[in-house]
Specification:
With 459 residues, the protein is of the alpha/beta class. The protein is built from 18 helices and 13 strands. The strands form 6 sheets. The chain has a 3-stranded antiparallel β-sheet with strand order 3-4-9.
Length: 459
């Protein structure tokens, strides 16, 4: 295979959409799989909308996802500059070539590309006016995903806007030519642009790259229909960072948006993605976003994290929620995490799930309050078990279990009869990690104090 050169061309005008991240990932996978080059090129010609914060986010998101680039900002390279705003001399050189060939002209302060073919005017229903059109030859797009697509351009299009900024189609083609791009993997919303680009390649006398247009990402059907927008939950990569998702799980999920391996496996490490990824396996139909699958994959990755790695991510989530600080007891924290890790599918949920281990400022579950605490005999059961727990010399799981069993033997009931009310008294809920280990980790002093506080609250 020729030396593959692919590019990712984001605009620094807003937050990074999950579709944008997918374009970066698929280009990166193809470059790494083929031993090619992955180029990061910043499309910053829109001076009014560009922001430094958006550029910083692009670089931060790519780094977080583990998508390193061979050429581009910070990496350099022999085909720079890698910011379109700095490539003015290159654009002027290529524009001169079109002007010399009679393929560019000025109109209304802008510069247009001149199509070849017979010109005529006709009424256009969309514009509600007579407009000039050109009878051009159709162009055939050989697309690796969509097969053969035939399109025809009928109107001249802008090369340079009236404000002097070069247009998207022009800079896109010039950059791909001058940077030696061999393959263009992008969203299917660009398919309609490709006929314009092929007209430009033909005018420059340059063979076009190989195209592959990926399917649109569609909304989760549980929230609506149509294309997923930046306003939809889960649409922005930064959201997953803020929600403490694992980056490797996010990469895995994004890879499955429109692609799947032949063996049907869903949990795929980056090494497995590189081994299995093929452009020809990308589907044509829209890729359906599935928030539940994202959570499922995140949970699968969380389950296999070594406890030291798990603790690192947990500390970030708990610290950002002001539940712990750098002075937290490490042994206590690890004990809590060992209890909780099988119960939660995201570090995002860890603070709410475990707050009562670290703070007195935890939520009292209203349903649990009604179901457990308002139940007849709840106060009596709590009063029965309290002295048994208070009298324990050792605070071990076996000792705690014996206290409940001893009371059960005396009353003829099962020890589980006291579990719900004690759990609610110490945690404010009726669900959570395994009961006896939970009491052990919380410690005798805290358990007894919270039980007494709960008993006192109804006097």
């Amino acid at each position: 295979m020729e030396n593959v050169r692919v590019r990712f061309e984001p605009s620094p005008t807003g937050s990074v959409h999950i579709g944008t991240a997918r374009a970066a990932l698929f280009n990166w996978l193809y470059a790494r799989k083929t031993g090619g080059r992955f180029i990061l090129r910043i499309a910053d010609t829109d001076r009014e909308r560009n922001t430094q914060s958006a550029l910083d986010e692009i670089l931060r998101v790519l780094s977080w996802l583990g998508l390193d680039w061979d050429e581009g900002p910070e990496a350099g390279g022999e085909f720079g500059p890698y910011f379109q705003s700095q490539r003015g001399d290159i654009y002027r050189e290529y524009l001169q070539k079109l002007e010399d060939a009679g393929r560019a002209y000025k109109k209304d302060g802008a510069i247009f590309f001149k199509l070849e073919g017979e010109r005529h005017t006709e009424y256009d229903e969309y514009h509600k006016a007579e407009i000039e059109k050109v009878r051009t030859e159709p162009v055939v797009i050989e697309d690796l995903i969509r097969g053969k697509v035939t399109r025809r351009e009928e109107r001249d299009f802008v090369l340079v806007r009236s404000n002097g900024d070069p247009g998207f189609h022009f800079v896109n083609v010039v950059d791909d030519i001058s940077m030696g791009i061999t393959h263009v993997l992008r969203g299917e919303d660009h398919l309609s642009n490709t006929s314009k680009h092929l007209e430009l390649y033909k005018a420059f006398g340059t063979p076009p790259p190989i195209f592959a247009h990926m399917p649109m990402i569609l909304k989760d059907p549980r929230i609506g229909k149509g294309k997923m927008s930046k306003r939809d939950k889960g649409a922005l990569v930064e959201e997953y960072q803020q929600r403490h998702f694992l980056s490797q799980a996010v990469v895995n999920f994004i890879a499955l948006l429109g692609w799947s391996p032949k063996d049907g496996k869903e949990v795929l490490t980056i090494e497995e993605l590189l081994e299995r990824f093929e452009i020809k396996d990308i589907q044509k139909a829209g890729a359906r976003f599935d928030d539940k699958k994202m959570s499922h994959l995140n949970f699968e990755y969380m389950k296999v994290l070594p406890i030291c790695e798990y603790e690192k991510y947990a500390r970030q989530a708990l610290t950002s929620s002001n539940l712990i600080d750098e002075n937290v007891d490490g042994e206590h924290l690890r004990g809590v995490l060992e209890l909780c890790r099988e119960k939660i599918d995201s570090f995002e949920n860890l603070p709410a799930f475990s707050a009562y281990f670290f703070s007195e400022d935890y939520t009292i579950n209203e349903k649990a309050f009604k179901k457990v605490w308002r139940r007849e005999g709840a106060r009596e059961r709590l009063s029965e078990i309290t002295p048994r727990l208070s009298d324990l010399d050792e605070w071990t799981e076996s000792a705690i279990e014996y206290a409940f069993q001893q009371l059960a033997n005396e009353t003829g009931e099962k020890p589980f009869a006291w579990y719900p009310v004690v759990r609610f008294a110490v945690s404010g809920t009726n669900s959570g990690p395994d009961f006896l280990p939970m009491l052990k980790i919380m410690g005798k002093e805290l358990v007894i104090r919270r039980i007494n506080d709960r008993l006192a609250s109804i006097n």
